[in-house]
Each structure stands twice: as structure tokens, then as C-alpha cells.
């Protein structure tokens, strides 16, 4: 059985087709739903077993990273996303989707301008680092995928960082703490974090852009290294179990 999945978008989102493709490859049945189509398509979100909040530049990032996306999601969806989490629905927010989850309060910390003050578009290596997170559980091999953002520097206070470490909620770290391995200067090289349930994952890099050999740099490698498809398969497994 293919669990129904929603790829949630907003004006300016540009990676929804990539996210839908990744979900299809992982065994889900995705459809894209734009905030502008609500409330007419709210029922599809209510029935979804898996939700991906796609990356891009929602509303042109006119008021900062993901801020309008979060405000519009709250206005149009209310508490639906937290309710879905309480029902056991896995949620993944990528790039602008991560920014939206942070702005909405579903994930801790903040995403600020890149340390070097400019847009970063490059491939990075990620080390999975959480067994609590349903998306990264059991992943041991590093992932390779691109980043494309100007506001991706993860920041949090000492107490929050300690809590994330102690509760196994740092889902991904960049392979090294220095530039360009850590392209935005994120605290402790954090590339992704999850909530206390392990169901909600937010990450700045784009795993949807490396689920087959023909995507990106995978074309020039002999071995199938760094594919992110297992991440999406984990989400599907968790969706089927909910």
C-alpha cells in the first residue's frame, strides 16, 4: 500500500516536483497542495499519512526566511500540522520548509543569514546523527546533497543546543565545521534538527535532489554513494506504521 503524501507549497516554492519524485521513488503516493488552494483542499492534508514542506523562496522571502509562509500556514491551517504530528504523521521541512517550521514554533532555534553574507549553492556531505528521528533512524552512511540558500545558518542558545544534544534531536551535521563543508556557519555544524517526538524533521540541504544516480554529481561516480532515498523510505515506513 502506498501511503498518501502531501507536498505542501506556497507561492515561490520551486522544489515541489523534486520532493514529489523522491516520495514516489520511496513508495508513497504524493500530491502537491499549495496554500492558495486552501481551504478547498484541506481534506487532502487531513487524510495524508506523510507531509513534506518543500523548499524554495516562498513569497520571495520578502520579510525574511519562511516568515510569510509560516504566518499564512497558521492562518489557513490553524493547528492542523501539530494535530497531524499528534496522530503520528511524519513531517519533513526542507530549506524554506525548515525555515517555516522554525518560524511556526514546531522546531526550536532560528535560521539566520549565512555567515559569509551571500547565497550558497553547493554540494555538501551530511552525517546522520539521530536515532530518535524517524527520518534518520538506522542511517549510518553520509548523505550527499546540495544546499541553495541565503539564510541557512542554524542558531540557538546554549540551553537549546544542550537540550538538542541530550535528547538526540540533532538529525544531521555537516561533515566538518569549517567553510565550505559547513556552508552557512551553523552552530555545531548543525544541518537539521527534529522535534521531541522524532516525527518532525527540518533540514537546510535538499535530499530530494539526490535520490537517483542521474541527479547531480552522482552521474560521475562509480559507486552509488550518498543517496538520500533511504531518508524518504524511512518516512514512508513511519507513515505506514502510524
How would you describe the overall organization of this protein?
This protein is of the alpha/beta class. It has one domain (about 5-240): Class I glutamine amidotransferase (GATase) domain (Rossmann fold), CATH 3.40.50.880. The chain contains 7 helices and 11 strands. The strands form 2 sheets. It has a 9-stranded mixed sheet, sandwiched between helices. Strands 5-8 form a two-stranded antiparallel ribbon. Strand 10 (about 190-195) and strand 11 form a beta hairpin. Helix 3 (about 65-75) packs across helix 5. The radius of gyration is 16 Å and the shape is globular. The mean pLDDT is about 95.
Task: Summarize the helices and strands and which ones pair or pack.
Blueprint: E1 4-9, H1 16-26, E2 29-34, H2 42-47, E3 50-53, H3 67-77, H4 80-86, E4 91-94, H5 96-103, E5 110-112, E6 120-128, E7 143-149, E8 153-155, H6 158-166, E9 170-174, E10 190-194, E11 200-203, H7 229-241
Parallel strand pairs: 1-2, 1-3, 3-4, 4-11
Antiparallel strand pairs: 5-8, 6-7, 6-9, 9-10, 10-11
Helix pairs in contact: 1-7, 3-5
Short précis:
The chain has a single domain, classed as 3-Layer(aba) Sandwich (Rossmann fold), CATH 3.40.50.880. Helices cover 27% and strands 23% of the residues.
Q: Classify the secondary structure makeup into a structural class.
A: alpha/beta
Shape: globular
Q: Any guess at the CATH architecture?
A: 3-Layer(aba) Sandwich
The rounded distance between the terminal residues' Cα atoms is 13 Å
Helix content: 25-40%
Q: How many structural domains are formed by the residues?
A: 1
What does the average pLDDT come to? 93
Count helical runs.
Answer: 7
Biggest β-sheet description: 9 strands, mixed
CATH superfamily placement: Class I glutamine amidotransferase (GATase) domain
Low-confidence stretches: none
Spatial arrangement of strands, main beta sheet? 2-1-3-4-11-10-9-6-7
SSE run? EHEHEHHEHEEEEHEEEH
The level 1 CATH classification is Alpha Beta
Amino acid at each position: 500500500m502506498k501511503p498518501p503524501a502531501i507536498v505542501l507549497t506556497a507561492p515561490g516554492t520551486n522544489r515541489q516536483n523534486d520532493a514529489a519524485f523522491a516520495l514516489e521513488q520511496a513508495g508513497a503516493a504524493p500530491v502537491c497542495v499549495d496554500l492558495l488552494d486552501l481551504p478547498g483542499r484541506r481534506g487532502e492534508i487531513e487524510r495524508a499519512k506523510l507531509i513534506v514542506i518543500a523548499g524554495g523562496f516562498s513569497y520571495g522571502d520578502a520579510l525574511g526566511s519562511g516568515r510569510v509562509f509560516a504566518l499564512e500556514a497558521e492562518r489557513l491551517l490553524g493547528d492542523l500540522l501539530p494535530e497531524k504530528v499528534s496522530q503520528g504523521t511524519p513531517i519533513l521541512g526542507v530549506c524554506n520548509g525548515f525555515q517555516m517550521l522554525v518560524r511556526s514554533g514546531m522546531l526550536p532555534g532560528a535560521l539566520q543569514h549565512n555567515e559569509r553574507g551571500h547565497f550558497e549553492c553547493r554540494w555538501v556531505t551530511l552525517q546522520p546523527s539521530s536515532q530518535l528521528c524517524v527520518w534518520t533512524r538506522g542511517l549510518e552512511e553520509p548523505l550527499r546533497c546540495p544546499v541553495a540558500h541565503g539564510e541557512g545558518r542554524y542558531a540557538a542558545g546554549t540551553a537549546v543546543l544542550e537540550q538538542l544534544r541530550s535528547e538526540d534531536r540533532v538529525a544531521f551535521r555537516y561533515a566538518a565545521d569549517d567553510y565550505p563543508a559547513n556552508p552557512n556557519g551553523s552552530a555545531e555544524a548543525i544541518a537539521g534538527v527534529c522535534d521531541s517526538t522524532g516525527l518532525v524533521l527540518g533540514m537546510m540541504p535538499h535530499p530530494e535532489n539526490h535520490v537517483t544516480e542521474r541527479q547531480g554529481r552522482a552521474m560521475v561516480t562509480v559507486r552509488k554513494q550518498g543517496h538520500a532515498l533511504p531518508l524518504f523510505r524511512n518516512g514512508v515506513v513511519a507513515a505506514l506504521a502510524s
